[in-house]
């Protein structure tokens, strides 16, 4: 396994450790959650980057101690400039002298106390400790406790942490693709993650989980929107999402196969939700 | 060769003589010069001394199409002559065509027909309806659907034995096996002792020859499908499958001699529809990642190996299939050949 993966997991565990009692208000999302949920269904594209992403549920978060206290003590600091909710730390590996690894703290828009553009302004905590993100609401209702352990033999740590379910991860990925579409921040890999989630989960399981959070007032709107995005981005072989997935897998998998697989799986899931 | 044209002319005359009514005889059978329209001639003599010339055309084998062409040629070159076509065996369909064209015939199993107007004579007898001695027909290729069985057994076993052993192992007619071996012998692909036992098999050249004669698209009826969750999802389903199947192609080759991650699964199955249904594959015109093949001969299932409860075709089968497969198939076949050469003890029984 690439040492960067080992490092990314190790830094994530550092953050979870530093969060102490606040861990129970966190849900792991992003690439590391996808990896835990659907594994490496195939190895064509590197399964995750070095960053970790944690959703904080303000409704379950206590006011004290401030989350920044533990994080700062553990060697994390808020990235400067105008960024919000990005906690970084620097590490050394065999092949890289100085690697910056980040852990993003995110709060779903529907439950954010701060109503500004970015800072979540969690009560009792550094206002810029976490940032508001739209599309993550489903995570609040689709998560399961999973063991998140170190990937290195010399690291015995592991925590039982809420990990977002594949359906909530799908919804958040679709929103991310839509938010960034057409901008330089658009990443083809996000579409490949959608394919990875659809491949690694049965349509029946996806449908069961989606039904659960589609019925919740807090996550209903983002869910309905995401299902529409799934159809328009991935429901056609020449759709934006299908073509992003094709580009992400370029040279590693057959373009046509990726495109028609996106369509088949998107259709299958949308069909399962109609039943 | 037993049935040279000259030999057949002689045998034809002998056979007709045997069938003639009492008092009739055949005489003066002669071989015609090489450039004449037929191979021989003879006189048929009636009890009253009247004689008729019959021309004899010898064919080592004759199929219906050949019969039609022959009739057309003789109709132009020798209109109105009495001609007898002789061959070791004439199938009913061939006899019908000859009859319809007004040609006489005789074969060595007792099928004969001859009509003369002067002196008036009609004789017609029926012999065998199937070729009793198919080894008289030389085989020129490995195209036959069952020829692959002989190829496979020759490659897969170090001591394949002789004709009888091969016939017993493959469930084929010894005459057929013998013709295949004669071809392989002529082409120097096998070495036999004087008693006919196989001493040596040039297995790599033999597999290449087989692939050349029967390219992958002729090995069965193939259909393309999509497993949208990718090949790992299909492989997960196979151990529980109740269907008879075997994996060939790059997925099977990469297990032994990997060159690149396989992107296409090729499986031989007994029923395309049942397999597609049980494995939840969707028909795909483009972008498919699974090809199902309904093989022309179910010998592809023979000698399959099992790894982690998944069935893979024998390496000899995989190599021959890959040689004429699209994409990277031929390159994968070459890599597999290298592995097979280096690891003969692992796959030749």
Could you characterize what this model shows?
- The complex is a heterodimer of chains A (275) and B (349).
- Chain A has 275 residues and is an alpha/beta fold.
- Chain A has helices at 3-19, 30-38, 67-73, 166-180, 188-200, 203-214, 217-234, 240-248, 255-274, and strands at residues 26-29, 52-56, 77-78, 86-91, 99-108, 131-133, 143-149, 158-164.
- Chain A has nine helices and eight strands.
- In chain A, strands 1, 2, 3, 4, 5, 6, 7 and 8 form an eight-stranded mixed β-sheet that branches.
- Chain A is globular.
- With 349 residues, chain B is of the alpha+beta class.
- Chain B is 37% helix and 23% strand.
- Chain B has helices at residues 5-19, 64-77, 92-100, 147-156, 163-170, 174-186, 203-213, 231-237, 249-256, 272-278, 315-323, 329-342, 344-347; strands spanning 25-31, 40-45, 51-58, 83-87, 104-107, 112-117, 120-125, 190-192, 198-201, 220-226, 245-248, 265-269, 282-283, 290-295, 305-307, 310-312.
- At the A-B interface, helix 5 and helix 9 of A face helix 8 of B.
Mean pLDDT across every amino acid position of chain B: 89
Q: Assembly state here?
A: heterodimer
Distance between the termini of chain B: 35 Å
Q: Please give the largest β-sheet of chain A.
A: 8 strands, mixed
Largest interface: A-B, 20 and 15 residues
Order of helices and strands of chain B: HEEEHEHEEEHHHEEHEHEHEHEEEEHHH
Structural class assignment of chain B:
alpha+beta
**Widest sheet of chain B: strand order?**
1-2-3-4-5-6-7
Q: Report, as a whole number of angstroms, the end-to-end distance of chain A.
A: 41 Å
Which bin fits the share of residues in helices of chain A? 40-55%
Radius of gyration of chain B: 27 Å
What is the averaged pLDDT score of chain A? Answer: 91
Structural class of the helix and strand makeup of chain A? alpha/beta
Apparent shape of chain B: elongated
Poorly predicted spans of chain B? none
Q: Output the helix-strand order of chain A.
A: HEHEHEEEEEEHHHHHH
What's the main sheet of chain B like? 7 strands, mixed
Number of strand elements of chain A: 8
Helix run count of chain A: 9
Helix content of chain B: 25-40%
């Amino acid at each position: 396994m690439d040492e960067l993966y080992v490092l990314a997991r190790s830094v994530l565990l550092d953050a979870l450790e530093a969060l102490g009692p606040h861990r129970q208000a966190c849900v792991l999302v992003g690439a590391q959650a996808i990896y835990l949920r659907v594994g490496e269904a195939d190895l064509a594209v590197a399964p995750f980057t070095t960053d970790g992403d944690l959703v904080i549920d303000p409704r379950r978060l206590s006011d004290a101690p401030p989350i920044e206290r533990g994080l700062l003590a553990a060697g994390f600091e808020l990235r400067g400039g105008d960024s919000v909710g990005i906690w970084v730390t620097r590490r050394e590996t065999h092949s890289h002298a100085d690697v910056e690894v980040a852990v993003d703290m995110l709060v779903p828009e529907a439950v954010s106390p701060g109503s500004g553009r970015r800072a979540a302004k969690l009560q009792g905590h550094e206002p810029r400790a976490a940032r508001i993100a739209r599309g993550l609401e489903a995570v609040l209702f689709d998560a399961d406790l999973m063991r998140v352990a170190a990937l290195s033999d010399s690291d015995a740590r592991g925590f039982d942490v809420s990990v977002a379910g594949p359906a909530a991860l799908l919804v958040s990925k679709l929103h991310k693709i839509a938010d960034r579409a057409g901008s330089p921040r658009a990443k083809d890999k996000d579409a490949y993650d959608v394919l990875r989630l659809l491949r690694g989960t049965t349509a029946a399981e996806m449908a069961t989980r989606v039904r659960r959070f589609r019925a919740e007032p807090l996550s209903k709107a983002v869910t309905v929107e995401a299902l529409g995005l799934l159809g328009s981005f991935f429901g056609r072989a020449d759709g934006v999402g299908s073509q992003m997935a094709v580009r992400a897998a370029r040279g590693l998998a057959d373009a046509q196969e990726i495109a028609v697989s996106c369509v088949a799986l998107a259709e299958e899931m949308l069909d399962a939700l109609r039943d | 060769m037993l049935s040279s044209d000259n030999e057949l002319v002689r045998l034809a005359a002998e056979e007709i003589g045997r069938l003639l009514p009492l008092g009739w005889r055949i005489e003066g059978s002669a071989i015609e010069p090489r450039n004449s329209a037929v191979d021989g001639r003879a006189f048929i003599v009636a009890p009253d001394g009247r004689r008729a010339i019959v021309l004899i055309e010898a064919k080592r084998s004759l199929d219906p199409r050949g019969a039609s062409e022959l009739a057309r040629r003789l109709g132009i070159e020798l209109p109105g002559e009495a001609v007898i076509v002789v061959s070791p065996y004439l199938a009913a369909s061939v006899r019908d065509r000859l009859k319809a064209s007004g040609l006489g015939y005789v074969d060595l199993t007792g099928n004969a027909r001859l009509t003369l107007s002067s002196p008036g004579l009609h004789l017609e007898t029926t012999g065998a309806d199937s070729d009793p001695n198919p080894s008289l027909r030389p085989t020129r290729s490995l195209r036959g659907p069952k020829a692959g069985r002989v190829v496979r057994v020759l490659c897969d076993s170090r001591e394949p034995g002789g004709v009888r052993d091969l016939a017993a192992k493959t469930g084929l007619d010894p005459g057929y096996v013998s013709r295949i071996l004669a071809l392989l012998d002529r082409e120097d692909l096998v070495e036999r002792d004087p008693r006919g036992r196989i001493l040596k098999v040039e297995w790599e050249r033999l597999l290449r020859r087989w692939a050349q004669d029967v390219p992958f698209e002729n090995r069965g009826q193939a259909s393309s499908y999509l497993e949208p969750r990718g090949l790992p999802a299909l492989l997960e389903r196979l151990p529980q499958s109740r269907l008879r199947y075997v994996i060939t192609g790059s997925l099977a080759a990469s297990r032994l001699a990997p060159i690149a991650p396989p992107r296409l699964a090729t499986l031989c199955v007994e029923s395309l529809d049942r397999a597609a249904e049980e494995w939840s594959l969707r028909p795909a015109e483009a972008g498919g990642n699974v090809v199902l093949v309904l093989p022309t001969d179910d010998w592809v299932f023979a000698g399959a190996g099992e790894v982690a409860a998944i069935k893979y075709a024998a390496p000899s089968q995989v190599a021959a299939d890959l040689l004429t497969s699209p994409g990277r198939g031929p390159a994968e076949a070459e890599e597999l050949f290298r592995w097979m050469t280096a690891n003969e003890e692992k796959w030749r029984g």
